[in-house]
Specification:
This protein is an alpha/beta fold and about 220 residues long. The protein has 8 helices and 13 strands. The chain has 2 domains: about 120 residues, Rossmann fold, CATH 3.40.50.2300; about 90 residues, Arc Repressor Mutant, subunit A (Orthogonal Bundle). The chain is about 40% helix and about 20% strand. The mean pLDDT is about 90.
C-alpha cells in the first residue's frame, strides 16, 4: 500500500519513513510543499501524511487544494499546534485526522489504519472474504482458521486485492501499491508474488483477467 509522507524535518521524516516501511507500506517521502502537491496530483496514493508547516506551502493549503479538485485521498495532518482553533482549522481544510507532535509511530500507524478502514467502508479491523481473513494491524492472514505464511510483499498484494474483491488490478497498479520511488522493481516481480500467493491460497482465489490484471474472489463451490 503506497503512502505519501511530506515532512521537512530530516530526522523525523527518515524515522517515520523507515518505520512505515517496516510495517509494510511503500512510502514516498517528500520534504517540500509544492513537490507534495505535485505528487498527489500525479500518483494514486492510499493515504497521505502531511506536515502542517512545509517549505513554500502548508499542509492545510495542500489539503484544501486536493478537496477543491475532488481528490478524496485520506489525509493525516502532522502538527506541533495543539490549540483547539488550529486543530479545527486543519480539519476544516479537509484533513481526515491529525497527530500532534512529538509523533509516536504506533499511534501514527493506528490512525493511518483507521483512515484506510474508513476509506474502504470497513467498520471492523479485520477484512473477511468467505473463509479468508486479513488483519492489517497485525499484517496477518488466515484461511479457514489456518495462518498463511506470507512474505511482506505477498501479504501486501493480498491486502491490496482483498480490500476490493472482484476489482481487477493491473500489474502497474500493484507495483505502485508495493514499491516507492526509490525501489527498483523487477519486470516479473508482481507475477512472482501472485504465483506464490496462488500456491498458498489454493486454486480459484486469484483470477487472471487477460489483458487487464488480477482479481480476488472466493473459489466457486465444487458441483
Amino acid at each position: 500500500m503506497r503512502i505519501l509522507l511530506a515532512e521537512d524535518d530530516q530526522s523525523l521524516g527518515q524515522a517515520l519513513a523507515e518505520g512505515l516501511r517496516q510495517l509494510g507500506y511503500a512510502v514516498d517521502w517528500i520534504t517540500d510543499g509544492p513537490q507534495a502537491a505535485a505528487a498527489l496530483s500525479d500518483t494514486d496514493y492510499a493515504a497521505a501524511i502531511l506536515d502542517w508547516n512545509l517549505p513554500r506551502s502548508s499542509g492545510p493549503a495542500i489539503i484544501a487544494d486536493m478537496r477543491r479538485r475532488q481528490d478524496a485521498t485520506p489525509v493525516l495532518l502532522l502538527t506541533a499546534r495543539d490549540d483547539l482553533s488550529d486543530r479545527v482549522a486543519g480539519l476544516d481544510a479537509g484533513a481526515d485526522d491529525y497527530v500532534v507532535k512529538p509523533v509516536h509511530l504506533d499511534e501514527l500507524a493506528a490512525r493511518l489504519r483507521a483512515l484506510l478502514r474508513r476509506a474502504d467502508g470497513q467498520l471492523e479491523p479485520a477484512i473477511r472474504l468467505d473463509q479468508l481473513e486479513v488483519v492489517p494491524a497485525a499484517r496477518r492472514a488466515t484461511l479457514a482458521g489456518a495462518a498463511l505464511q506470507l512474505t511482506a510483499r505477498e501479504y501486501a498484494v493480498l491486502e491490496t486485492l482483498v480490500r476490493h474483491p472482484g476489482r481487477a488490478y493491473s500489474r502497474e497498479q500493484l507495483e505502485d501499491a508495493l514499491y516507492g520511488w526509490d525501489q527498483e522493481v523487477a519486470s516479473n516481480a508482481v507475477e512472482v508474488h501472485v504465483h506464490h500467493l496462488r500456491h498458498k491460497l489454493g486454486p480459484g482465489w486469484i483470477r487472471t483477467l487477460r489483458g487487464i490484471g488480477y482479481a480476488i474472489n472466493p473459489p466457486a463451490p465444487r458441483p
